[in-house]
């Protein structure tokens, strides 16, 4: 399996993602919020790129069935009840609802990936499950699209890609481009000090200044949700549990066969 990592979604075009298996990452905070909301019972999520798009798309839905959430540069839209904090999306808020989510970087990256064959939503919260699924799928190539921060490289997304590559390499022979190699090294060197590292970054410092230090700590937790959100027909839903169960059995069998060979 060959792995490519793009440090921002601006580095790759929608056309280049056609017929690819794509993993989209926006650790702080869009994909962490998506994983959390679905884990808490949200029915489905529409990732949208603008406030107006969210309002228009949601207008045909019964108001009691939807949630509008979003932010621009970290701050919640005044017209929305919810922002981009994963801690806001509790079971009481989201269960059975459809979420229309707008974010500065993550949902834009997800919209760009709609041309891909498969699109998996990844964060540190579900990184191992994503690696297990990729090992089960065993494509020739996987493309990791990091959302980045306003067109710039960010450590947290690349480290999340490195975590997934790390767990994937435990099960598969993996080759990658230079950023994939760097991502793996970044994760291995910093996996036990992620919070200290993130406090040194512009993004981490900005979240703390905006009052979101709790979000920062939460988004850096690893593997608390063995879930696979995937994007199909412009909406994100969870992969069925029977698929995950069968996938895990196959991966375990494949891994044991590799160890004994």
Topology:
Elements (H helix, E strand, L loop, with lengths): L1 E5 L14 E5 L4 H10 L4 E5 L2 H8 L7 E7 L2 E2 L14 H4 L3 E5 L3 H7 L5 E5 L4 H11 L3 E6 L8 H15 L5 E2 L1 H13 L3 H5 L3 H8 L3 H7 L9 E4 L2 E4 L2 H20 L1
Parallel strand pairs: 1-8, 1-9, 2-7, 2-8, 3-6, 4-6
Antiparallel strand pairs: 4-5, 10-11
Main sheet properties:
5 strands, parallel
Strand content: 15-25%
Report the radius of gyration as a whole number of Å.
17 Å
Q: Characterize the overall form.
A: globular
The share of residues in helices is 40-55%
Tell me the number of helical segments per DSSP (H or I, 4 or more residues long). Answer: 11
- What is the H-and-E element order? EEHEHEEHEHEHEHEHHHHEEH
| Spatial order of strands in the largest sheet | 7-2-8-1-9
Low-pLDDT runs of 5+ residues are none
Head-to-tail CA distance between termini: 19 Å
Strand tally: 11
The overall pLDDT average reads 92
Helix-strand makeup class: alpha/beta
């Amino acid at each position: 399996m060959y792995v490519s990592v793009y440090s921002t979604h601006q580095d790759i075009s929608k056309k280049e993602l056609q017929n690819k298996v794509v993993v989209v990452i926006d650790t702080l905070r869009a994909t962490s919020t998506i994983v959390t909301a679905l884990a808490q019972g949200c029915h489905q999520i529409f990732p949208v790129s603008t406030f107006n798009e969210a309002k228009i798309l949601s207008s045909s839905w019964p108001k009691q069935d939807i949630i509008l959430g979003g932010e621009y540069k970290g701050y919640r839209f005044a017209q929305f009840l919810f922002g981009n904090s994963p801690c806001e999306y509790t079971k009481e808020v989201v269960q059975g609802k459809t979420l229309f989510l707008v974010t500065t970087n993550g949902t834009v990256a997800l919209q760009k990936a709609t041309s891909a064959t498969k699109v998996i939503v990844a964060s540190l919260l579900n990184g191992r499950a994503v690696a297990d699924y990729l090992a089960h799928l065993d494509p020739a190539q996987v493309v990791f699209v990091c959302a980045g921060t306003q067109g710039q490289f960010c450590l947290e997304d690349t480290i999340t890609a490195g975590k997934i590559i790390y767990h994937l390499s435990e099960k598969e022979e993996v080759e990658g481009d230079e950023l994939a190699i760097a991502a793996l090294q970044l994760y291995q060197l910093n996996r036990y000090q992620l919070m200290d590292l993130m406090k040194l970054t512009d993004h981490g410092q900005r979240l703390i200044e905006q009052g979101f230090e709790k979000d920062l700590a939460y988004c850096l937790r690893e593997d608390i949700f063995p879930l696979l959100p995937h994007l199909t027909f412009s909406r994100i839903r969870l992969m069925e549990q029977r698929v995950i169960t069968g996938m895990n059995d196959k991966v375990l069998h494949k891994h044991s066969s590799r160890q004994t060979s």
